Amino acid sequence: MELQFKRHRRLRSSASMRSLVRENHLKAEDFIYPLFIYEGDNIRKEVSSMPGVYQVSMDHLEAEMEDIVAHGIKSVLLFGIPKTKDACGEQAYHDHGIVQVATRFIKEKFPEIIVVADTCLCEYTSHGHCGVVEGEKVLNDQSLELLVKTAIAQAEAGADIIAPSNMMDGFVAAIRAGLDEAGFTEIPIMSYAVKYASAFYGPFREAAEGAPQFGDRKTYQMDPANRMEAFREAESDVEEGADFLIVKPGMPYLDIVRDMKNTFNLPIVIYNVSGEYAMVKAAAQNGWIDEKNTVLEMLMGMKRAGADLIITYAAKDAVRWLREDQ
Ligand SMILES: [Zn+2]
Predict the structure, then answer these.
(1) Are residues 88 and 132 in contact, defined by beta-carbon separation less than 8 angstroms?
(2) Which of 96, 79, 90 is nearest to 38 (CA)?
(3) CA 314, CA 127: separation in Å to the nearest integer?
(4) Domain covering 24-324 in this structure, CATH number
């Protein structure tokens, strides 16, 4: 009997053949590296739940940036840890707020590096919520005003991209109008359009020191069970003028990344969050997985799912490993 079947293995017969038909590729330009800038002196503190990730004060920033540039990474996402916090998060939008100071420094010393400014209030508010609080309620429209002030302060400091992350309704419209009015019509908005209320953010809260002091973020971040809601969120951000769409977290939401890629004509960004990073690190430190191949497979999965850009704490490792393999 003559069997009829297809020989798919023909295209996997050697490393060269596999390389010839490879559909997706990772490169240094895909990555955005998050940086935690600590207000103070002589601080370079490793985040205990995120080995290899450091909070740095301004006096350590130049060395950190040189390392980032030496790795071939082209963009950074800035978070700030201020000395003082208050109910309205004033250090988020103060001219001398830590992210503004760091942005000015980076743009002066490393002008070719793209600075993405995370635009939120939770690292700067005493209550740790992403907006203005009344009782135990996070107020939407009042929060927008402070977010706009923050975005303008970041743009004035030289940020190349504004990345609002607090999931208030209308945040893209408000920031776009505010930036335009202030003369920053050329500054794009990378919106955290689809941000789930996720358990995977745990280690980040240690790194950014912005855990909510009461309640949770479920009235503004999305329910992990929902898909249609992601379309509604992204649609309104596109209408309001977003230039990039972020899906956050990464690995548990690759279906949503593909949905966004198929539906919208904007660059899709995935945020490979702290908990995803920490899990791999912990397993690797126990000798339970091969870190290099696991991380590169995760990142490739994100590209294959449709991500154009990946925000990841593993950026330095990834570009180093990719270079090794060349
Ligand atoms: Zn926030």
Answers:
(1) yes
(2) 79
(3) 30
(4) 3.20.20.70
Over residues 82-135, the pLDDT tens digits come to: 999 998 899 999 999 999 999 999 999 999 999 999 999 999 999 999 888 998
261 closest CA partner among 224, 312, 304: 304
CB atoms < 10 A from the CB of 161, how many?
20
Residues annotated as catalytic (active site), given as ranges: 195, 248
- State pLDDT tens for residues 25-73: 999 999 999 999 999 999 999 999 999 999 999 999 999 999 999 999 9
Contact 248, 163 (CB under 8 A): no
CA–CA gap between residue 205 and residue 210 (Å, rounded)? 5
Q: Give me ligand 1 centre to Cα 3, in Å.
A: 60
Measure 166 CA to ligand 1 centroid, in angstroms: 5
DSSP state of 136: T
Residue closest to 309 by CA, chosen among 123, 99, 73, 2: 73
Distance 138 CA to ligand 1 centre (A): 12
Contact criterion met (CB below 8 Å) for 118 and 112:
no
Q: Which residues of 179-190 are buried (b: 16+ CB within 10 A; e: fewer)?
A: beebebeebbbb
Beta strand pairing call for 44-46 and 54-57: antiparallel
Structure tokens at 281: 């690190």
* CA 321 to centroid of ligand 1, rounded, Å: 32
Quote the ligand 1 centre to 127 CA distance (angstroms). Answer: 11
Q: How far is the CA of 122 from the centre of ligand 1 (A)?
A: 4
Position 214 scores a pLDDT of 86
Q: What is the DSSP letter of 223?
A: P
